[in-house]
Design a protein that fits this description.
Shape: globular
Strand content: 5-15%
Largest sheet: 7 strands, parallel
Structural class: alpha/beta
Radius of gyration: 23 Å
CATH superfamily of the largest domain: P-loop containing nucleotide triphosphate hydrolases
Strand order of the largest sheet: 5-6-4-7-8-3-9
Length: 496
């Protein structure tokens, strides 16, 4: 198997371009008629089969097999979404595809259905490798693949950190049809077991889900190694809710072999989302959070996600809410994978109405019934705000996003408003009502902090930070990260 030559210093995906064909026919382009503000959509070259797929109103018209069409009906997928109409026929034709559309637009089915159809025609393992940046997304993708391939006797395995590596290695050696993985864990398994790389020697599809994240410098080392273990004659599928400069570079890498569907309108939020903020002193954040949670019934809020910036605050708030007898699940990287999956399952199933989470839950997770998103901490990057509040007001539903803002967050809020091209609504609560909870909230905060000392959380956090810094230093990413953070801020300001 020929190894790919990786020539781009910033990211390893981009190979040395092959010489273009003489006088290649230019690709036909058209604007997405359903979304006139979107970017250009690249259609097939002149003379290629199939007309503009925007005309497709049924799954049959996309070229899907009878069993796939029937499965879609059973899953109440009444008609193709726009990203599905554009991308499914091109994937079935054998094209590389870049699909960019908003969160909740049906991107998973856009790549899963054609992969499963090709698998049904030539079943063997491992047929496709799907990479995603977080463990929770990996398990969600597995659920969706199983649902869409329910009649195929599909063999699928999930390979993520925090789980038994020996069991994962055995699962890969049994050659499942679909492997869904996070880059770090699959790299370790490929490195440490010489019997595993041959398992991937015949894959037909490589999918990068949340491709904007995976094409970040943080995954460079893992992807560089992975691509050297995969056959070159594969189809590459990239899907994302947002576009980045790295995604744009794919045009240069694949040239006319890449079909691009891009319905990206910048970092926008849906019209059905009500966005509010309260401006308060930092020292009473916990008091205001407690007050908001007591008003959930009055606001007809069934479920709430509370986002915080650090694992420490997520753990502390979890303990604090437990003290005041507010039931909540929590999701952050310090927890074991089984605990994280349990928390997410309980929230999705409605067993608990509040989920405390870091940004590990801000992308891609499909939880249709979230009514309220609370930014306990304003996110450090404006684009993270868009991803967080995108957990509510999905699929045409309404939703509310409330940000708790202190004097330290003013600049961040201005950056968010500039990116959104709108101002957040400033609201106020009756101070007497809020401050009536101050004793209760502060007492619970003190108890939570004492519990954190007792369970050794501070020491665990220091050790984890040390390990993370050592890993970043070994990858040579410490300086890159600080520079990249500045570039991200500058690029977001330009986009605004």
């Amino acid at each position: 198997m020929d190894q790919e030559t990786l020539v781009d210093e910033n990211f390893p995906l981009f190979l040395k371009p092959r010489k273009p064909a003489k006088n290649p026919a230019p690709p036909v382009t058209a604007v997405d008629t359903a979304n006139p503000n979107s970017h250009t959509v690249q259609l097939e070259k002149p003379g290629a089969m199939n007309s503009d797929p925007t005309a497709a109103t049924t799954f049959e018209e996309l070229g899907l097999a009878e069993w796939a069409v029937k499965t879609c009906k059973e899953l109440r997928m009444r008609k193709p979404r726009r990203v599905q109409s554009h991308c499914i026929p091109r994937i079935l034709e054998g094209r590389h595809v870049l699909g960019i559309d908003e969160t909740g637009s049906g991107k998973t089915a856009a790549f899963a259905l054609p992969i499963l159809q090709r698998l049904s025609e030539h079943p063997y393992g491992v047929f496709a490798l799907v990479l995603t940046p977080t463990r929770e997304l990996a398990y969600q993708l597995a659920e969706q693949f199983r649902a869409l391939g329910s009649c195929l006797h599909l063999r699928l395995t999930v390979v993520v950190g925090g789980m038994d590596m020996l069991k994962q290695a055995k699962s890969l050696m049994s050659r499942p049809h679909i492997v869904i993985a996070t880059p770090g864990r699959i790299k370790v398994l490929l490195e440490e077991n010489p019997d595993i790389p041959p398992v991937f020697s015949r894959i037909k599809f490589l999918v990068l889900d949340e491709a904007d994240r995976l094409l970040d410098v943080g995954f460079q080392e893992e992807l560089k190694f992975l691509f050297q273990c995969l056959p070159e004659n594969r189809q590459n599928l990239f899907f994302s809710a947002t576009t980045t400069s790295n995604l744009q570079k794919l045009h240069e890498r694949y040239q006319d072999k890449l079909y691009v569907y891009e319905a990206y309108e910048g970092f926008k939020t849906v019209e059905t989302l009500q966005q509010q903020m309260i401006f308060i002193p930092k020292k009473v954040k916990e008091v205001y959070l407690t007050h908001v949670l007591t008003k959930m019934d009055d606001m007809s809020v069934r479920s709430t996600i509370i986002f915080v910036n650090t694992c420490r605050d997520c753990h502390r708030l979890s303990l604090m809410l437990d003290v005041i007898e507010v039931e909540a699940a929590s999701l952050y990287s310090f927890k074991s994978q089984s605990e994280r999956l349990k928390a997410l399952h309980e929230f999705k199933a409605g067993k608990v109405s509040i989920l405390l989470a870091t940004d590990v839950a801000s992308r891609g997770l499909d939880i249709p019934t979230v009514d309220l998103v609370i930014n306990y901490d304003v996110p450090r990057f404006p684009r993270d705000y868009v991803h967080r509040v995108g957990r509510t007001a999905r699929a045409g539903r309404g939703g509310l996003a409330l940000s708790i803002v202190t004097q330290n967050d003013i600049e961040l809020i201005h950056e968010i408003e500039a990116l959104l091209e709108r101002q957040l609504e400033m609201i106020e609560y009756k101070e007497t009502e809020v401050l009536s909870l101050i004793k209760k909230a502060f007492s619970a905060k003190n108890v939570a902090e004492m519990k954190m000392m007792d369970d050794g959380f501070e020491e665990k956090e220091k050790e984890r930070k040390k390990q993370k810094l050592e890993m970043l230093e070994a990858k040579g990413l410490l300086k890159k990260r600080s520079k990249k953070r500045k570039r991200n801020r500058d690029s977001e300001k330009k986009e605004a």
